[in-house]
Design brief:
Number of strands: 21
Strand content: 15-25%
CATH superfamily of the domain at 91-336: Alanine racemase
CATH topology of the domain at 91-336: TIM Barrel
Structural class: alpha/beta
């Protein structure tokens, strides 16, 4: 593959902009993965998928999980804070915790906790189920277990179990009544965790989750409520339990200025509380550290205008400056940067199964008859005479003729065959006008809609709602790139549709350095030829927030370790959902369904409409179908 082709690939898909060095292109035109930026180890994703499909007999879609990327992201995060602390002479430590809501899968949580001794990494949980799982996990005694979210008595009692098991637990108070419940339960048991107070800051974040902060935020105590909590702790003689101040201004913060403002405000609140003689010594800044999904390094919702190092520098420097001014100790910094820690490590692999064209290239050439309506003959003339000088004018004429065509059809003046002939001519005019526009130095923006309409629709074997729900729900951009055939010169402009029975099951917005593209340049689909497509950066939130729309289940999953010389090791395979799993999810009993089906066939046998032998075959087929994948084979 020559340098010109390689540059075309990078321009088209922006891989070097959004991949953070984890993904690249091989000389063969395939996507490769690396354990870290500038790491010589590389594995061909097409080779991985071929192995899993042909040797391990797994069906697509496939979720490829790369644990080494998880570990490297943790290293990047902790190194950024360590370097900032050393550079500025900050006196506190950095305590990273992984928020389980981002990706509670056991494989993810345990991979982070393998590094708990090295990086003091702990866990954050916001529900009783997450806490139940977290309590049993091995952590270093110095690491933290942060308990967020709304709490009842049973949540508090579960927290005390964690304390009694030797965990360093901080239960974060979201509202005043939670503190009353906690103190009552603690008094009964004689067990007291550390207490944190979540402050509702005036400062808001930026991007899709800006409403997580500010006066209207769902979580957090107002200034008055903070004071009431402190007063209650003092009245109970438990002010020594108050060790942490928490705040969160939103996920995926796009603008670094918002971070600086939040740190100033939170630093002041911490300083004032500490000056009252309370032993608070941890400042939990929550999440918010963004991921550059589109690679633009801007304030757009799918990007951010800073690096991890800049984020850490601003946090450390701003908090230090406020504390020095207020003459209070520098607090230990707790971060919950789950999106940054997990987004890169997972790739969803799907296959393109079919091309659904709005405008078919294989339509027969339209011939004009003497008795054709005038609107048809005029559209044929426009098509024949269209060229690089008049294409814009003739395209607009064709739009008017198309409207006239449908008006005459609704009035009963032309036949269905005439309507079909006119529509074919119209789309041919659009296609030719678009081609002429693309050949000019500055293509007319009006033809962007034409390109989108004429774009092929590629049917992909996955459920958007299951595997990339944020694409549908909030318009999140995820990079989409073919895993192979990237060097091929012939491309289609296409959008992607999934296998669900839902018109929203599509991806029609794609990452671009300057804008959001409405179509994606893809190698041309060819029948009976394998065609793998990767949806990248889906490791944060997508797995846990995905729905079972149409009862499409979890995809098959493989955990891949990258070795030297292009080799890889499949450490673990997790089978995806089958039909039986999904009907059980919908509260059907599989055995009962099979009995009902057998009863139905028994009735047909009794009525003489089938034989007992044929009925038995059908029942066995129905039973075996329960083990089939919910996706296309």
């Amino acid at each position: 593959m020559n340098e010109e082709t390689l540059q075309r690939i990078y321009r088209t898909y922006g891989i070097e902009n959004w991949s953070a060095g984890y993904f690249g292109v091989s000389p063969q035109g395939n996507i490769v993965a690396h354990p870290a930026m500038n790491d010589a180890r590389a594995v061909d994703l097409k080779a991985v998928v071929d192995h899993l499909v042909k040797e391990r007999k797994l069906h697509l879609p496939l979720l490829l999980r790369f644990p080494q990327i998880l570990t490297n992201q943790l290293r990047i995060l902790t190194t950024a804070y360590r370097d900032s602390i050393e550079e500025f002479g900050y006196k506190g430590k950095h305590y990273p915790v992984f928020p389980m809501k981002v990706n509670p899968r056991r494989e993810v949580v345990e991979e982070f906790l393998k590094e708990t001794g090295k990086y003091r990494v702990g866990l954050e949980c916001g529900s009783k189920a997450e806490l139940y799982a977290a309590i049993a996990q091995e952590q270093t005694p110095e690491s933290l277990l942060i308990c967020n979210g709304f709490k009842d008595e049973s949540f508090c009692r579960l927290t005390l179990l964690a304390v009694q098991s030797g965990k360093r637990v901080v239960i974060v108070i979201e509202k005043l009544n939670e503190l009353r419940i906690l103190l009552r339960v603690c008094a009964e048991t004689g067990v007291y965790p550390w207490v944190g107070l979540r402050a509702k800051l005036y400062t808001k974040g930026s991007g899709k989750w800006a409403s997580s902060g500010g006066d209207s935020a769902k979580f957090g105590l107002t200034t008055s409520e903070l004071l009431q909590c402190i007063r209650l702790l003092r009245e109970e003689g438990r002010q020594d339990c108050l060790r942490l101040l928490h705040f969160h201004i939103g996920s995926q913060i796009t603008d670094i200025k918002r971070v600086k403002n939040a740190m100033k405000e939170a630093g002041r609140v911490y300083a004032k509380i500490h000056q009252w003689g309370l032993p608070v010594d941890f400042l939990d800044i929550g999440g918010g550290l963004g991921v550059d999904y589109d690679g633009s390094k801007t304030r757009t919702e799918s990007s951010m205008n800073y690096t991890v190092e800049e984020f850490a520098n601003d946090v450390v420097y701003t908090v230090q400056s406020v504390c020095d001014e207020e003459n209070v100790p520098h607090p230990n910094l707790v971060t919950e940067s789950g999106r940054m820690m997990t987004a890169y490590h997972t790739v969803l692999v799907t296959s393109i199964r079919e091309e659904i064209e709005t405008f078919a290239d294989d339509q027969p050439e339209v011939t004009i008859d003497e008795d054709d309506p005038q609107v048809i003959t005029e559209m044929k003339w426009l098509l024949d005479e269209l060229n690089g000088k008049n294409y814009f004018e003739y395209y607009h004429d064709a739009v008017e003729h198309k409207d006239e065509l449908h008006t005459q059809f609704n009035l009963g003046l032309i036949s269905l065959e005439d309507r079909a002939k006119g529509e074919v001519l119209y789309w041919e005019i659009c296609a030719r006008a678009l081609k002429e526009s693309e050949q000019t130095r500055n293509p007319n923006e009006e033809f962007e809609d034409v390109k989108r309409i004429l774009a092929a629709k590629y049917l992909c074997n996955f459920s958007l709602f299951r595997s990339a729900p944020d694409s549908w729900a909030i318009g999140q951009l995820f990079p989409v790139v073919p895993l192979h055939r990237l060097q091929e010169p012939k491309i289609d402009f296409a959008t992607l549709v999934d296998v669900t029975c839902d018109s929203d099951g599509k991806i029609d917005k794609f990452v671009d350095l300057r804008d959001v593209k409405q179509t994606l340049e893809l190698p041309e689909w060819k029948e009976n030829q394998e065609y793998y497509l990767g949806i990248f950066l889906v490791g944060a939130y997508q797995e846990v927030m995905g729905s079972y729309h149409n009862l499409f289940g979890l995809p098959n999953e493989a955990q891949i370790f990258m070795e030297s010389d292009g080799r890889f090791h499949v450490a673990k395979i997790v089978p995806g959902s089958n039909i039986q799993d999904m009907v059980a999810f919908a509260r059907y009993d599989t055995s009962a369904l099979q009995d009902l089906f057998a009863k139905r066939l028994s009735g047909l046998v009794g009525a003489g409409k089938t034989t007992a032998q044929d009925a038995e075959k059908l029942v066995n087929q129905y039973k075996s179908a329960a083990r089939w994948s919910t996706y296309l084979d």
